[in-house]
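Note on ligand handling. Small-molecule inputs were canonicalized before submission; formal charges were left as drawn, and no protonation-state enumeration was performed. Where a ligand contained multiple stereocentres, the stereochemistry in the source SMILES was retained. For L6N33NVT, this procedure yielded the string shown in the input block below.
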Amino acid sequence: MESMQTKVLSNKVTNLCQGDKITKIPNHRIKTFAFPVKDSSIKLVLHQNDLSAPQNLIYRPQRKHDIATSALSSAESCVIDKFDPDEVHSITKQERIGILLLNLGGPETLNDVQPFLYNLFADPDIIRLPRLFKFLQKPLAQLISVLRAPKSKEAYASIGGGSPLLRITNEQAEAMKEALEEKKLHAKIYVGMRYWHPFTEEAINQIKKDHISKLVVLPLYPQFSISTSGSSISVLNNIFREDGYFEGLPISIIESWYQRVGYIKSMADLIQKELLSFLNSEEVMIFFSAHGVPLSYVEEAGDPYKDQMEDCISLIMCELRSRGVKNSHVLAYQSRVGPVQWLKPYTDEKIVELGQKGVKSLLAVPISFVSEHIETLEEIDMEYKELALESGIENWGRVPALNCTSSFISDLANLIIEALPTASAIARTRSNNNCTDDGEMDAMQYAVKMLFGSVIAFFLLLFPKLVSLFKNSLF
Ligand SMILES: C=CC1=C(C)c2cc3[nH]c(cc4nc(cc5[nH]c(cc1n2)c(C)c5CCC(=O)O)C(CCC(=O)O)=C4C)c(C)c3C=C
Ligand SMILES: [Fe+2]
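Structure output:
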C-alpha cells in the first residue's frame, strides 16, 4: 500500500515521521494544503501561539476537483502531532455543537416518486448542461422525471412502496449521537437531504433555531463525487454565503472519508462474514459494485470519484489480505441513466462476462453508499441476481450495507470529533455569476426562459419517435 506523508517546515514540504513536532515560523500563512496521508492516525494540527488548543486540523484527501474549502486559514505556528481527544473536549465544552448529516433522500410513497425525480434531475450537478442551455434544466427535469417515473415507481413498489433511506439515516443519526455521548461529546444531530424531505434547508432552519455555535458537516458518502457530496455541499455553501447567521460561525465540512481505517475494517468485517456463508468460500469472487457517474464527470470535470473508489477498494482488499483472505475481486459500476457513457465496466455486462468465463460464485459488495436503498434492494438483490443466475453463476450473495454497524458508527463519531478543531468561519464571497441562480435572475428573464424551455420540452413530448428514443436509451 502506497503511503505518502508530508510535513510543513517553514515554506518547505518534506517527509514526515509519525509523532514529529514542528514549529513553524510565526505569521506564516497556509492557504490550501493537500495532505495525502492514508494512515489516518497522523494529522496536521495548526496551533496559534497563545492558545493551547488546536485551531485547525487538516484532514483532506488528495483530490483533483476543488470546491470551496474553509478549514485552512492562517496560523501562527504549526505542529504535527497525533490527535488527542481530551484536548478537543476541553475546547468544546462551552459550545453548542451541531452535526449535519447530508444524504440524498428518497421518495417515501409512490406519489413522491415523480417530484423526487424532478428535484434530482433539476440539479445542475446531476444533469450538467452547457451554460448556454442552462435555461432548459427545469423543463428537461420535468420531462425526464415524468418519463422515468413509471419505471422508478415499479422499482420502489417492489421494495415496499418507498425508500428506506430516511428511516436508516435517522437511525444512524441516533446511533451516532449515542456514540458521541459515550466519547463525552454532546451534540445535536441534523439530517439534511438533497432531493426529498427533510431538505437541507429544513435542517438549516432547525440549526438556527437551536442556536448552534459550531457545526460539523458530514456527507454520508464515503467517496466524493460532484454529483453527491459535491452537490450537497454546494447547496450548503450557497446558504452559508447568503445567510448572516453563518457569518463567523465555525464550520467544518468533511468532503470524503473512505480511507478511514474504521470504515475500511468495518467493510472488511462484513465481507469476511458474508464469504463464510458460501460452501466454497475461497472460490468466491468479490464483486464490488459502485454507483456509476457519467465518464465526463471524471474526464472533463475532474471528479475524484473514480480515483477514490479504486483507492478505497485497494484499501479494503489490503485489509482482507492481511487477514488471510485470498479471494479474487473486481470493480464495476451500476445504475447508469441516459444515453451518455458512464464509468466502465458496467455491472450488468461484467456479470454476464464472468458467467461466460465460468465464474460460479459471486459476492456483490455495494460500495458507494452506507445504507440500504433502492439500488441494493431492487437493482442488486433482484435484477443483478436474476441476471447472474441466467448467466451461469450458481452461487450469489450480497454484503449488507453498513447501516448502523457499531464499529462504523463509532468511527464516524471519531471522525466528527477529529473534525471539530478544523471548524472555521466560511468566507462569505458572493458569487458574481449573473445567470446561474434563479434568485439572481429577474422575474421577466425567468418567465421567458421557463416558457421557452417548456415549449421545447412540449415539442419533444409531441414527437413519439424522439420519446421512444428517450425511453429506450435513457430510461
Ligand atoms: C454515491 C452514490 C451515488 C452516485 C455517485 C449517484 C449519481 C447519480 N445518480 C443518478 C440518478 C439517480 N439516482 C437515483 C437514486 C439514488 N442514487 C443514489 C446514490 C448515488 N447517485 C442513491 C443512494 C439513490 C437511491 C435513493 C433511494 O431512494 O433509495 C435515482 C432514482 C432511482 C431510480 O429511478 O433509479 C436516479 C434517477 C445520476 C444521474 C447520477 C450521476 C450523475
Ligand atoms: Fe443516483
